[in-house]
Design goal:
five-stranded mixed sheet, 5 strands, alpha+beta, about 140 residues
Length: about 140
């Protein structure tokens, strides 16, 4: 069996799961005990295990059906990887209780993951939520 690097694993996550909609692949990428840390997450449900990741992606795609993540850069060392990304989409659906605005967005963010035995066991995210809300017109831009 070929060794899969963290870079390859998370490129597949973005290409095939987040962008391509292959949510079943989350079962392979995320461990059953995976814990996601995002203090700014508007989703009140904790993101735990592959099922939590799938539900979270479904919620994001509900608000932004055309949402696409472009991986800009990756840095990995041992069992950790940092992925810098840009996300683009149009808010045509409900986004965690906010009605659709029809407005396009483009934000940047970073995920950090810790892995064990070829699966993510813990993750953190930091993204431009202020820019997202400004682009949606929810808060003033200046």
């Amino acid at each position: 069996m070929a060794v899969v690097t963290n870079e390859q694993l998370f490129q597949r996550y973005f290409d095939e799961c987040a962008n391509g909609g292959n949510l079943d692949l989350c079962d392979e990428i995320f461990a059953a005990d995976y814990q996601h840390h995002d203090p700014a997450n508007p989703d009140p449900r904790p993101v735990v295990g592959p099922q939590g990741v799938k539900a979270h992606l479904e919620s994001l795609k509900g608000g932004f059906p055309d949402l696409v993540f472009d991986v800009e850069d990756t840095i990995s060392d041992g069992d950790q990887i940092i992925v810098k990304w840009t996300a683009r989409g149009t808010n045509t659906g409900d986004y965690f209780g906010m009605p659709a605005t029809g407005k396009p967005i483009e934000i940047s963010g970073m995920n950090t993951w810790r892995t064990r035995d070829g699966q993510a066991i813990e993750g953190w995210v930091n993204r431009d939520d202020m820019g997202l809300l400004q682009q949606l017109g929810v808060i003033p831009s200046h």
